[in-house]
Amino acid sequence: MTEQRVTSQDVVSAIQALENEGVINPGLHRIRSRIGKGSTGTIAKLRAIYYAEKNRAPAGGTNPIAEAVESLWLEMIKAIEEREKVAIEESQKPLQEAQAAAVRAELEKEKLQTHLEEANKRIEELLQRQVELKADLHASHEAANTANMTKERATAEAAALREALESQKVAITELSAEREKLALAGMAEKLELINKVAELKNSLMSAGAESALLRNRAEAAEKALELEKMASERLGTEVKVARARLEETKDAMGRMTGPENEAGALSYRIGRTQRALLREHHLRAKPRA
Question: 4: which DSSP letter?
Answer without folding.
Answer: P
